[in-house]
C-alpha cells in the first residue's frame, strides 16, 4: 500500500500539470495555454470567454509588432513621459516625482509607457495617412461636449506642511496626528484661478481628506492636506488643449487598432484545442 500511494500521487500530479500547462488555443502557430487563461482570469477578474478574447488580441498585437519590426528604446520612453508632463502643464522632474509616489512600482509605469509608445509606432506604420489628425475645431468641439471632464473645484481648503527634510514629511503623511519637530504648517484657502497648472493638477487629482504627493517649492519640500473642495469651475481650454488632443488621437488609434484586430482575426489561423 505504501508503494502504491506515491505512484497514484505522481500520476495525479502529472495529469494535473498537463491540464494546467496544456495548450488551449493556437494563433498563427503561437500557443495560449490553459495556465495563461487561468492566470489572466485571476489577474483581471474576468470570465473565461473574456480572457480568451483578450489573450488572442494580445497575441495578434504582439505578432503585428514583431512582423513590423517595432522596437522601443529608453529615449522614446523619456520623450513620451515629457509629452505627458507637458500636457498636464508640468515639468518632467515634478511629473515623475508625483508618478513615483502614485505608482508603488515605477517600473510598472514605464512598462505601460512602453506599451503606449509601441502601439503608437505600430499605428503610425500601419496607418500610412489613414488616421485623421485632430484639428483645433475638433479639440474645441470635444471640450464643449465633454466640459464635465474638465471641471475642477473653485476653492481648495488645505493645510500646508513644509520642511527642508523630506523624510519628516513622509513620516507626517504616515502618521497625520503626530506632532513632528521640523515641520511648519498653516491652513489656507486656495483659489483655482490664482494657481498655475502644475499645482492645479496636483490638487484636482488628490482626494479630500488626503495628502498630495510631496513636491518642491521655494527650496522646501511641501505636501498639502485637502480639507475641503468647494464650488466648480471649468479649466481653461488652452490649459487642457494638449490633453484633449491626446485623448482624441488615443480614441482614434484605439478604434483603428480594433478594426485591424478584427481583420487580423478573419485572416488568422486560430485553432481552439480545448
TrEMBL record:
It holds the Pfam family Cj1289-like_C. It comes from the Bacteria. GO terms for molecular function: peptidyl-prolyl cis-trans isomerase activity. Residues 1-19 form the signal peptide. Keywords: Isomerase, Signal. The keyword Isomerase applies. It is an enzyme of class 5 (isomerase). Its EC number is 5.2.1.8. The keyword Transferase does not apply. Residues 136-229 form the Cj1289-like C-terminal domain. Coiled coil: none annotated. InterPro entries: Cj1289-like_C, OMP_Chaperone_SurA, PPIase_dom_sf, Trigger_fact/SurA_dom_sf. This is Chaperone SurA. The gene is surA.
Amino acid at each position: 500500500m505504501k508503494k502504491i500511494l506515491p505512484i497514484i500521487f505522481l500520476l495525479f500530479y502529472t495529469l494535473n500539470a498537463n491540464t494546467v500547462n496544456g495548450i488551449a488555443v493556437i494563433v498563427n502557430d503561437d500557443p495560449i495555454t490553459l495556465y495563461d487563461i487561468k492566470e489572466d482570469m485571476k489577474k483581471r477578474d474576468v470570465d473565461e470567454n473574456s480572457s480568451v478574447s483578450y489573450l488572442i488580441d494580445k497575441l495578434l498585437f504582439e505578432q503585428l509588432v514583431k512582423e513590423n519590426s517595432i522596437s522601443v528604446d529608453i529615449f522614446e520612453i523619456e520623450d513620451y513621459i515629457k509629452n505627458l508632463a507637458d500636457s498636464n502643464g508640468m515639468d518632467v522632474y515634478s511629473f515623475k516625482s508625483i508618478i513615483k509616489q502614485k505608482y508603488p512600482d515605477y517600473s510598472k509605469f514605464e512598462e505601460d509607457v512602453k506599451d503606449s509608445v509601441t502601439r503608437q509606432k505600430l499605428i503610425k506604420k500601419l496607418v500610412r495617412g489613414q488616421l485623421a489628425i485632430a484639428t483645433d475645431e475638433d479639440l474645441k468641439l470635444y471640450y464643449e461636449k465633454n466640459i464635465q471632464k474638465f471641471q475642477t473645484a473653485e476653492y481648495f481648503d488645505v493645510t500646508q506642511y513644509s520642511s527642508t527634510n523630506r523624510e519628516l514629511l513622509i513620516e507626517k503623511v504616515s502618521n497625520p496626528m503626530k506632532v513632528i519637530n521640523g515641520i511648519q504648517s498653516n491652513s489656507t484657502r486656495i483659489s483655482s484661478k490664482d494657481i498655475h497648472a502644475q499645482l492645479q493638477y496636483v490638487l484636482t487629482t488628490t482626494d479630500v481628506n488626503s495628502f498630495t504627493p510631496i513636491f518642491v517649492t521655494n527650496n522646501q519640500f511641501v505636501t498639502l492636506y485637502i480639507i475641503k473642495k468647494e464650488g466648480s469651475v471649468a479649466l481653461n481650454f488652452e490649459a487642457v488643449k494638449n490633453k484633449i488632443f491626446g485623448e482624441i488621437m488615443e480614441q482614434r488609434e484605439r478604434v483603428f487598432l480594433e478594426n485591424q484586430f478584427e481583420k487580423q482575426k478573419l485572416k488568422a489561423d486560430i485553432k481552439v484545442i480545448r
